[in-house]
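Design job #97: recover the sequence.
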C-alpha cells in the first residue's frame, strides 16, 4: 500500500497530471509488484515562487515521495526509482535530472488502516 505524494509547479494540464499519476503507478506495479488497484496518490501543485531549486532545474522539476511498508530490498528500491524516472522521461519528456524521488519506510506500528494499527 504505497502512499504517493507528487509535487509539481502549478500550470500543468489535466492530461499531464493524469499521465504523471499513471507513470508513477505503473512504475510501482512493475518494480514492486503492487496490485493495480492499489492507488493512493496525490499531486500537490506549488506556485513557482514558492519552490526553490538549483538554477539548472526546469519547470518540469518533480518531487516524488513514496511511503512504503518496510521490507523492500535495495534492488527493489533502485528499480522503482529507475522505472518511474524512465517512464516520466519517456512519456512526459521530463529530464531525468528533474526527477527527485525519496522513499520513506515508517515501521508498521506507525500505520493505521481502517481505524486499526497495522
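Job complete. Output follows.
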Amino acid at each position: 500500500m504505497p502512499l504517493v505524494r507528487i509535487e509539481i509547479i502549478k500550470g500543468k494540464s489535466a492530461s499531464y497530471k493524469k499521465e504523471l499519476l499513471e507513470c508513477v503507478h505503473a512504475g510501482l506495479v512493475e518494480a514492486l509488484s503492487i496490485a493495480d488497484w492499489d492507488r493512493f496518490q496525490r499531486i500537490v501543485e506549488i506556485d513557482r515562487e514558492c519552490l526553490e531549486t538549483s538554477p539548472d532545474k526546469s519547470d518540469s522539476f518533480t518531487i516524488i515521495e513514496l511511503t512504503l511498508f518496510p521490507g523492500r530490498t535495495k534492488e527493489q528500491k533502485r528499480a522503482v526509482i529507475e522505472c518511474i524516472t524512465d517512464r516520466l522521461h519517456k512519456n512526459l519528456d521530463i529530464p531525468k535530472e528533474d526527477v527527485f524521488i525519496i522513499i520513506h519506510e515508517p515501521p508498521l506500528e506507525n500505520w493505521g488502516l481502517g481505524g486499526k494499527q497495522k
